[in-house]
Amino acid sequence: MDWFVILGPVVVLAVVALLGFAGCSFEGGSLPPSLTFKLRVPDALTIVQAGFVFTDPAMVRTPIDAPTASTEPGFNVFTHSLYTPAPGSWEITAATRASATGAPMAAQAVTTVVFPSDGTRWRVDFEASGDPDAGTLRVDFVAFVQV
Q1: Quick one: pLDDT at residue 124?
Q2: What is the mean pLDDT of each run of 10 residues along the chain (147 residues)?
Q3: 93: closest CA among 58, 65, 138, 54?
Q4: Where do runs of H (alpha helix) occur along the chain?
């Protein structure tokens, strides 16, 4: 009798919790379409600033001054993602201001990509290289890839 009094509410709670999922359905792998901008800068450089500017198909220009920062082996990585972006032509500028030991130098790259309307996820890759002290810092468009 004592066990029934103690375990009864626990069993009822478990049954109610399971019934809460009745009628729910799960669609695995259905992520919203996205467009991600990615800039890789060698970790030997001191980053003063990194960011993106994009112009969407409606010709609205948006600066991203504080992208998400992370690291990959040998690189500092800066990214920004847009979810459910409008299909059409996007102009993306990736820019960085960095230094090695001397004064910072700025560099940027501009590319135009066409985002499809098929609900897929895409990434625009840029990479910085060169030596700011020698005046050779550059940012290059690398790829527009489906992810």
Answers
A1: 94
A2: 70 67 61 88 92 93 93 94 91 92 90 89 93 91 92
A3: 54
A4: 2-19
Distance of alpha carbon 124 from alpha carbon 38, whole angstroms: 6
CA distances from 97 to 53, 117, 132, 145 (A): 14, 34, 9, 25
User: Is the alpha carbon torsion for 34, 85, 37, 118 positive or negative?
Assistant: positive
Task: Please tell me whether residue 134 adopts helix, strand or coil conformation.
Answer: helix
Measure Cα distances from 110 to 20, 49, 102, 141 in Å: 51, 17, 26, 7
Rounded Cα distance between 124 and 79, Å, is 10
Sequence spans of domains, the chain = 32-146
CATH number of 32-146: 2.60.40
